[in-house]
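Record pair follows.
FIRST:
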Amino acid sequence: MDYLITHGPTIVPVEIKAGKRGSLKSLHIFLYEKQLQHGVRLNMDRPSIGNFKTIVRMKNVKDKLSYTLISLPLYLAGQLDRILDDII
């Protein structure tokens, strides 16, 4: 996870990836620990939004996580607050 932003009273974790793919392990752990439902990934791919389920593995924890991932190309980073208004 690279950044935390606030959107109103909500904290939103942001992961930045140089390419189109990459692991989101730290994002998953943060979402799980803070019981958040939305995360953002900025990368070189097309915009998308999806609901995902994954398994979070930490030292003494193996649990399920359901969350919404907002994936945006890097050039839309300046529009993030406006986009989150429509989604959250």
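SECOND:
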Amino acid sequence: MDNLVIRELRVEDAGDVSRIYGSIVKNNEKIDFKRILNEQSKSSGMASFVAEVNGKVVGYLISYRLSGGFGIDRSAWIALVGVDPKFMDQGIGKGLAEEAFRFYREKGINNIYTTVEWDSTDMLQFFKALGFDRSEFVNLRKVIE
């Protein structure tokens, strides 16, 4: 895509990220993206980006670095990725991921992880196409009431 620009995510992008997230998830769940992006802006070494087409934010990727977690010296985790449905299948998600990979490669971080719902075939295919495979981790959950 010729007019695609990928840049660092900023706090003021929270509204666009929320809009894109809502168009993908289509539920009433409200995430405080302003708080999340505010916390991200205070942390160094995070690779979070937005994709713009003609100055409009059409995609985002939020990731973070983890040191000493789960027995791995240094790793990165992709927490959220989303592309406006009108702009899907145009390489925007791939471009965002490749920018994060470049960032972490320069920091000497070689292990990048993410979590995908087992029945989310579109996201599984997306990450498989990027070279992701099963890891040595098993996701566990405890609900605290």
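COMMENT: Residues 92-106 form the longest helix (15 residues).
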